[in-house]
């Protein structure tokens, strides 16, 4: 029998109803492991007792490893007393027959087993907290609108308000997996980092009444793997991260006023002004807006929907990256693709460097029509005609050399 969990974390947007009790894999892992570990002996009992969302994994799978912190956060939120859905996992390297029975052909596979239904439902959207909770709400039903207030308030409560969060390799993934985060990647010996440090602390204090964002930092000399994953090549590097995904690198001025304007723009909420702020803020706003406008013109074009895609490839040269936000190879290519767009547009403005998110519902048909079978896929189009898939090196010089072949002259 399962032992009842004593968790008391509120779940945003979900009703709670009786379901099977929760167990832990071991006493030592109790603080970190919230997902229920299932095996052939406990699986049928679990799904017979209520709704269960199961992650089928292989420990060696890199995508499974990336999903792990988010999965534990989801389990911590939802595996409360009398939950409406239990978050669980099955190790397919240990229980191959069980995984084969449930048609697991790749890792990770997420399946929702609804109480009283024989067929499970596979989750096929992006691996982020909003998408997964929306999936659960859609399949199991959400509470009435009037019941959401307290849960939402507790969910967005930010215990780190007013201070810089010092992140480590153990805490980074879970911390940034949901919400907005402005993160400073630094080295203690870096003089620019040392000069920024007091301003970074002041920025956190200024945002004490803004729960929609956290200000944090991570020491790249101690936690190199995290910094390598986010392709940090200099110090300090300031990245805006939303729901675990890098949105953009901040390249503006590092004074308090300009940093506040940037956060205000990214969050979309005017921040409370302090007595010390003057007309210099208006100049900072103009400076940030000008840099953003210039950056937009040089950045890869984000294509949405069939109509915009068809218009983009119709005339001239269009080099397009088809990707998924969760794809590690796509994330690795992202800064090179941005640099390719910047240098190409500066030298040859008629060439279009663009990208298509194949996980977005409005782009699914585009990716099907273009026969995208993996991520990232790079196709070049000349006057609407698709060329053979680019399969060369993804370094900047090689990508530029490939473009030159179709331009017929050396303008890149």
From TrEMBL:
**Segments traversing the membrane:** none
Coiled-coil intervals in this record? Answer: none
One cellular component GO annotation, for this chain's record?
A: endoplasmic reticulum
**SUPFAM superfamilies, per database record:** Thioredoxin-like
InterPro entries, A to Z: PDI, Thioredoxin-like_sf, Thioredoxin_CS, Thioredoxin_domain
Q: Name one Pfam family in it.
A: Thioredoxin
| Highest rank taxon of the organism | Eukaryota
Which residue numbers delimit the Thioredoxin domain? 14-141, 143-268, 287-408
Q: Which UniProt keywords apply?
A: Signal
Q: One GO molecular function term?
A: protein disulfide isomerase activity
From the UniProt annotation, give the residues forming the signal peptide.
Answer: 1-25
Q: Which GO terms describe its biological process?
A: apoptotic cell clearance; positive regulation of apoptotic cell clearance; protein folding
Which family is this protein grouped under? Belongs to the protein disulfide isomerase family.
Q: What is this protein called?
A: Thioredoxin domain-containing protein
Q: Which organism is it from?
A: Drosophila yakuba (Fruit fly)
């Amino acid at each position: 029998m399962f032992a009842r969990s004593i968790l008391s974390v509120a779940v945003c947007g979900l009703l709670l109803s009786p379901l099977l009790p929760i167990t832990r894999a071991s006493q030592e892992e109790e603080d970190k492991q919230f997902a229920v570990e299932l095996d052939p002996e406990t699986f049928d009992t679990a799904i017979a007792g209520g709704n269960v969302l199961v992650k089928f994994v292989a420990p060696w799978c890199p995508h499974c490893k990336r999903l792990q912190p988010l999965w534990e956060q989801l389990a911590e939120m939802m595996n409360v007393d009398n939950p409406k859905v239990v978050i669980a996992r099955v190790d397919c390297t240990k229980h191959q027959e069980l995984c084969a029975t449930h048609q697991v052909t790749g890792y990770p596979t997420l399946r929702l087993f609804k109480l009283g239904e024989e067929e499970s439902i596979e989750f096929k959207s992006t691996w982020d907290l909003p998408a997964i909770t929306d999936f659960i709400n859609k399949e199991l039903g959400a509470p009435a609108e009037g019941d959401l207030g307290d849960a939402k308030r507790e969910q967005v409560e930010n215990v780190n308000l007013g201070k810089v969060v010092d992140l480590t390799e153990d805490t980074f993934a879970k911390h940034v997996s949901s919400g907005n985060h402005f993160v400073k990647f630094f080295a203690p010996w870096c003089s620019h980092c040392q000069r920024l440090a007091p301003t970074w602390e002041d920025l956190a204090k200024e945002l004490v009444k803004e729960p929609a964002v956290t200000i944090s930092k991570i020491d790249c000399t101690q936690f190199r793997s995290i910094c390598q994953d986010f392709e940090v090549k200099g110090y300090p590097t300031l990245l805006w991260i939303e729901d675990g995904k890098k949105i953009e690198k901040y390249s503006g001025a590092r004074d308090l006023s300009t940093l506040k304007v940037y956060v205000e723009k990214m969050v979309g909420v005017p921040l409370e002004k302090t007595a010390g702020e003057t007309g210099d803020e208006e100049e900072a706003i103009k400076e940030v807006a000008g840099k953003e406008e210039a950056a937009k013109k040089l950045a890869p074009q984000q294509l949405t929907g069939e109509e915009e895609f068809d218009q983009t490839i119709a005339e001239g040269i269009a080099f397009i990256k088809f990707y998924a936000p969760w794809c590690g190879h796509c994330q690795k290519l992202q800064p090179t693709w941005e640099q390719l767009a910047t240098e190409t547009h500066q030298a040859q403005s008629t060439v279009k460097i663009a990208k298509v998110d194949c996980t977005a519902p409005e782009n699914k048909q585009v990716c099907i029509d273009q026969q995208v079978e993996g991520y990232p896929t790079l196709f070049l189009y000349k006057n609407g005609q698709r060329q053979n898939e680019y399969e060369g090196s993804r370094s900047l010089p090689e990508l530029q050399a490939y473009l030159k072949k179709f331009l017929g002259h050396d303008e890149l």
